[in-house]
Amino acid sequence: xxxxVAIAASLYLVVALAYVGFVPAASAHTITNSLNSAIATxxxxxxxxxxxxxxxxxxxxxxxxxxxxxxxxxSQSDDLEHKIAPLTYKGEPAKALEDLKTVILSMPxxxxxxxxxxxxxxxxxxxxxxxxxxxxFYLNAERGIIEVRSxxxxxxxxxxxxRKRIEAIREQFA
Length: 174
Hints:
Helix content is 38%, strand content 21%. The protein contains 4 helices and 6 strands. A hairpin with a 2-residue loop joins strand 3 and strand 4. Residues 1-44 have low confidence and may be disordered.
C-alpha cells in the first residue's frame, strides 16, 4: 500500500508543480500518464468485477428483487433493510430519462450498458479494488416515478455504498 501512496503523492506533486509553472505542462502530462499506467497495471490484478448478471431488467413492471445480503437497495423492496424511495421527476418522461443519463455519466467510473425505452442499466466500478455494482432505473410513467435498484455483484456488505449512490443521484437529479 505504501507504493500506491508514494505514487499518488508523486502525482500530486507533479500536477501541483505544473500548475504553478515549475514543470512544463507537456512534461507534467507525460509524467501523469506514466504514473497512471504504473498505477493501473497493478490495480488490474485487484479487479473484482464479477460476471455481469443475465437476469436484470424489467419483468411485469418489476426490477429484480434484492438478495438477502445487505449489499442491495431497491425502491420496490418490501423490507426496511433494502427499501429506498424511488426517484421523482417533473415534466416529460423522456426529458427525465435524458437528465438521469446526464447525472449517471457525470459520476466517476460509470458506464451505461443499456438505455432503452423507459429503462437504464449502468455499471459503477469502485476506485481501489474494481468492485462492480449493477444499477437499474425503470421509469414508471403511470405512477410518475423512477424505480431504482442498486446491487453489488460480489461480497456480502457494501458499507452502505449502494444506498449512498442512489441518494447522491437523487440529489443531483432533483
